């Protein structure tokens, strides 16, 4: 068997080693199933799979290592899933980044509201964009200096990184109110 079309069924959950007896499978269509969860190792043994269609389901993210056995995958269709853009989505973007030969479609954030309609890749690029910038006191031998914490100093450090670097990343739809903060490092 080279292709398996399981579209338009009621598959909600893929369990580990679900396709272990289909090792020669090259095309797997699981679209339009209301699929909500894929266990790690669900695709174990599908070493020759080239196309995987997971479109029109209810997937929100992939667990770590769900895609690890798909060495020869060339096409991944992910359209019309309610992808939640939070830390859990990072694995999928990481995997795609490290498998540049995989052509994919359909990674659009649906939640949270401020990222709705964003490409998931753009969301991941901004994930660390709001983290405070550390500025250590020079001359501290332990490498753990006191944190000054003022907003002006954080902006100075950002300026040292290079003009315009922060402008290359997409901006959130809603501007967040900036609060003054202080970071205290505990050793």
Automatic annotation (TrEMBL):
Listed Low complexity bias regions: 155-172
Source organism of this protein record: Ataeniobius toweri
Name of this chain's protein: Leucine-rich repeat-containing protein 17
SMART domains per record: LRR_TYP (SM00369)
UniProt-listed InterPro entries: Leu-rich_rpt (IPR001611), Leu-rich_rpt_typical-subtyp (IPR003591), LRR_dom_sf (IPR032675), LRR_TM_domain-containing (IPR050541)
Key words of the record: Leucine-rich repeat, Repeat
Region of interest called Disordered, as start-end residue ranges on this chain: 138-172
């Amino acid at each position: 068997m080279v292709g398996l079309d399981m579209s338009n069924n009621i598959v909600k959950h893929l369990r580990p080693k679900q396709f272990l007896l289909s090792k020669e499978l090259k095309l797997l269509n699981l679209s339009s199933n209301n699929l909500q969860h894929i266990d790690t190792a669900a695709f174990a043994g599908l070493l020759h799979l080239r196309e995987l269609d997971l479109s029109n389901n209810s997937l929100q993210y992939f667990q770590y290592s769900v895609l690890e056995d798909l060495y020869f995958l060339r096409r991944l269709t992910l359209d019309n899933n309610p992808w939640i853009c939070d830390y859990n989505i990072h694995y999928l973007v990481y995997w795609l980044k490290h498998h540049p030969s995989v052509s994919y479609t359909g990674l659009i954030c649906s939640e949270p509201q401020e990222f709705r309609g964003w490409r998931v890749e753009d969301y991941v690029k901004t994930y660390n964009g709001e983290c405070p910038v550390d500025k250590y006191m020079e001359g501290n031998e332990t490498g753990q200096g006191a944190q000054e914490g003022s907003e002006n100093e954080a902006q100075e450090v950002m300026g040292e990184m290079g003009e315009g670097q922060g402008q290359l990343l997409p901006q959130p739809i809603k501007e967040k109110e900036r609060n003054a903060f202080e970071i205290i490092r505990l050793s």
